[in-house]
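tool_call predict_complex ligand=calcium ion
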Amino acid sequence: MSLPIILDCDPGNDDALGILVAAGHAEIDLRAVTTGAGHLTGARTARNAAKTLRLSGRSDIPLGAGALNPLVRERMIAGVLDMTSALDPERPDLEEQDLDPRHSADLIAQTLLSGDATSIVTTGPLTNLAMALNRTPEITAKLERITILGGSWGLGNKTAAAEWNILCDPEAAHVVLSAGIPVTMIPIDALNPVGITPDLIKRIRAIGGTIGDFATELLQSLVMTFRPGNAMAPKFMPLNDPVASLVAAQPKLAQTQPARVDVELAGHHTYGRTVIDFGLRDGAVANVDVVTQLNCDQTINAFVDALTRLANLDI
Ligand SMILES: [Ca+2]
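tool_result ok
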């Protein structure tokens, strides 16, 4: 049976690949896409999602625009962008589907309350989900699982301590992780080995057609923005966001370990860090299943399969 999900994202070229994967995956029933500020401003992430969904042929899926700013902190926008291709520059040549009139937080809440979805996958800041939980706490009982792409048990990627998605809205992440809902978290440490290799780009290009061409463009743009930064960085640009939906639909792609995860909200140098205690010290209660390892080959194959299926859907 397919997993009915909401995808909350901030496209972003890797989020756009995530939309395509969720729209095409055989074991995912994509019930709504919601967007908010993160990689780009809220208006741009919504427009990028609208272009991606239209191109995917799945304009039947409701699309919400949401949070323009984090709950508390000032807004951040990604600093490293490829302004020449894919979705980082404005793309007036790509058609857009209409937006749902509801704010992302309301679309999330109503989709869960109606039973249309039982799970949410997030690949951006957690502002929309935190707003939905604060405004409509009844959804807590409806959510069977939240799959979060973000955080790290080791180094950060935006600051020395913090990963981008969590750092964009640490207070929202705190709200979500404190809600008592089962959470799977995919930290960058586990994502780093799943790279965008030349072989992967070749396989996606071979799909051809609108989907294959667009996905190839997205992958190539992501590779152009890869800034390894230090000697411990991965060899290839990690695939990142599409992996979240894959893990939600195919949990066996990942090994997980229960842990206590708290978000640092007060530290000066460590603000936004996910403090992950696998040892459950001092009686700490686990609140997250942390992905500790991904099966790289199977994850890449699942990614190719989902895009191939989307390209072949008779829509
Ligand atoms: Ca993202």
